[in-house]
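Researcher: Let's do a round of design. I'm pasting the structure tokens now; please hold your answer until I've finished.
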């Protein structure tokens, strides 16, 4: 729905940005649920000014309130996932949401030159094919020889090997060495590694933008669950749903990452869910 009167309200603090994004994700899930229930079309309000057609011949200023590093997977469109209109988010997408020099330069441009960005977010997703390729290389090291000879593919897989190793170790520590033989182990390893990778990339952004962080800029990460459409991460709490909605601050150091990995590996979605029928979020063949 195009609305010539609606003015986009842009959050002016990191906390307000997180709240707006999660409100948008809840609305997105709600719209999809309504559409499945009655087949009604889904509408989104977009201010004409944000599309550059509000005033003929005048280009609108670029005013995103958040900047994202997301995955190139076609099923993870960031603006739609968070229910945001045009000109609200500055999005860099690359297979495996890997932070490279070009992506970092783009995010740096958004933060330094636009002046409206209050939040940097790394968004992964369940069943990520890039993470899956790294997991397969980990599970069958001989197969990695083919990857090593393919430099473009190696550029995607190699940065993912550290979170894959960390996820594998955490799953074994949290649930026992026999976890590797259980049905669903690969899917659990892909999703745990993908979550740790998103947190790791967010931590790298925290360090890169350390001098600019403060009351006006924060860094968070989240994972888009392809099955439930909810942004969050595995729920480590003893009670509640398997998936915890939210955007999260990344750990500050190695000990923090180890604690996060063990916490998520012991969740019902993670290691304790391996081998159970109907595990949410398992998918294959994605980017």
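Researcher: That's everything. Go ahead.
Model: Designed sequence:
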């Amino acid at each position: 729905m195009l609305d010539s009167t609606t003015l986009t309200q842009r959050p002016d603090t990191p906390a307000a940005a997180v709240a707006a994004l999660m409100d948008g994700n809840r609305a997105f899930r709600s719209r999809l649920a309504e559409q499945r229930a009655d087949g009604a079309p889904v509408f989104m309000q977009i201010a004409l000014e944000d599309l550059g057609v509000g005033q003929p011949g005048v280009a609108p200023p670029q005013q995103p309130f958040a900047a994202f590093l997301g995955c190139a997977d076609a099923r993870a469109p960031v603006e739609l996932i968070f229910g945001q209109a045009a000109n609200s988010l500055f999005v860099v997408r690359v297979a495996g949401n890997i932070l490279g020099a070009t992506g970092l330069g783009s995010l740096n441009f958004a933060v330094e030159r636009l002046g409206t960005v209050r939040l940097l977010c790394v968004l992964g997703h369940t069943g990520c094919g890039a993470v899956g390729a790294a997991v397969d290389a980990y599970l069958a090291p001989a197969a990695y020889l083919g990857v090593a000879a393919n430099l473009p593919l190696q550029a995607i897989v190699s940065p993912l090997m550290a979170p894959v190793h960390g996820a594998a170790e955490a799953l074994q520590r949290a649930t026992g060495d026999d976890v590797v033989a259980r049905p669903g182990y690969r899917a659990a390893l892909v999703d745990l590694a993908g979550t740790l990778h998103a947190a790791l990339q967010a931590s790298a952004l925290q360090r890169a933008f350390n001098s600019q962080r403060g009351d006006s800029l924060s860094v968070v990460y989240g994972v888009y669950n392809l099955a439930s459409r909810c942004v969050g991460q595995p729920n480590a709490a003893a009670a509640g749903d398997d998936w915890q909605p939210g955007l999260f601050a990344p750990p500050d150091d190695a000990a923090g990452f180890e604690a996060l990995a063990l916490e998520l590996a012991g969740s019902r979605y993670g290691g304790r869910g391996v081998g159970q029928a109907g595990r949410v979020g398992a998918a294959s063949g994605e980017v």
